[in-house]
Amino acid sequence: MSRLGEWRRSHYTNNVNENSVGKDITIMGWVHEIRDLGGIIFVIIRDREGKIQVTVPTKHVDPQVLEDIKKLRKESVVAIKGNVQEAGKAINGVEIIPNVVKVFNPASQPLPMDPTDKVKAEIDTRLDSRFIDLRRENITSIFKIKSQLLHSTRVFFEENGFLEINTPKLVASATEGGTELFPITYFEREAFLGQSPQLYKQMMMSAGFDKVYEIAQIFRAEEHDTLRHLNEAISIDMEASFLSDTDVMDILEKLINKVIYDIVDKQQNSLEILDSNLELCGCPFPVVTYDEAVDIINSKGVEMEWGEDLSRAAEKALGEVYDGFYFLTNWPSEIKPFYVMANEKDPTIAHAFDLMYKDLEISSGAMRIHQHDLLKEKIAEKGLNPDSFGGYLKAFDYGMPPHSGWGVGADRLTMVLTGVNNIREAVLFPRDRRRLTP
Ligand code: ATP
Ligand code: MG
Q: What's the 409 CA to ligand 1 centre distance in angstroms?
């Protein structure tokens, strides 16, 4: 017996249709709209899956029901028991004639923002009242698609023999050096929030786990305010032994195609609500070398020297030429992290790649250095202290297989899959330089 007594939901609103006509059902949700026309009152009830019309012919219902209906306020949480009737003009062609109305919780008025999309609010106002903002079906749709992305990703990895791992997010030193770390107080010492599971997933190769993946938070002290960076993001990371950079590029391409296939297959309703034309191409992603990219970027009037990282303008120039996913390969070793393997014939080039979608970086990956002494040398070359990488380096001295891997920004991929242009839209409670609440 539920603690809600005899109140048990029988249907989500979208499951009430012509097959339900004549049946007594119970729905639970929020009061979306109330239209009192005197002789008849229409109440629209909304739940996660949609909306339904409750119709109250004032002269023909139980007086108690009428009294309860008249007391309803927008966004209150209610349960309604009633009988389903055909109603041509209503949502799904049906309406509910209520027998019992229960208010679980009345909503205070006025509301901090309008959840019905009639009044457009700025993103900051929306984020301040995010719990209400998230009630809007187009916003809910973004997170249904993100949920599908994460689910399909797990299924993909499990089907391909990967083990899911969890690595620590409280760390003693920087992953890659650099300034993007959040220092924290860890008892009497300084520690940091993990900026990437990189070093740990590599150590799992030495542990013999062969193929691993992790879906978890990464923390970056990005100071700039952009539409594609947050200070807390979700990274989908993988690492696999005895595979090269091109092997894990194939895995990434297959994953993206599976995710799109599943979303188009299972999240059609959300795609329609978002007015998205996401389509499965299934075709191989174009592979563009860094050299080719530099030429294209310069030909678009954006100056870029060989050896530089892509500026925002450079990414935009590339995005004008490539209208979907594409790989950028053969990066200069100089601008890649210490653990990236250089090309044997030309060490100025790295076995590293990015996956881009138009002008947005979705993933970075590489074949890694697996030789202890070389790795130690590279750490020093980047101006870092090999001593602070002791625990990591040790794993390379006692049997480390060759390996490769990548990290995908799940929030950025969600932007692509849903068509939103601000990463804040793809995160429930985004963290940026100005925002630490709610
Ligand atoms: P960018 O150059 O766009 O700042 P990056 O090269 O610093 O990204 P990586 O260290 O390669 O990022 O991280 C792997 C992936 O994680 C990126 O391709 C991106 O999708 C995602 N990512 C990295 N930083 C952030 C961030 N601050 N907010 C959201 N996603 C991020
Ligand atoms: Mg990168």
A: 6
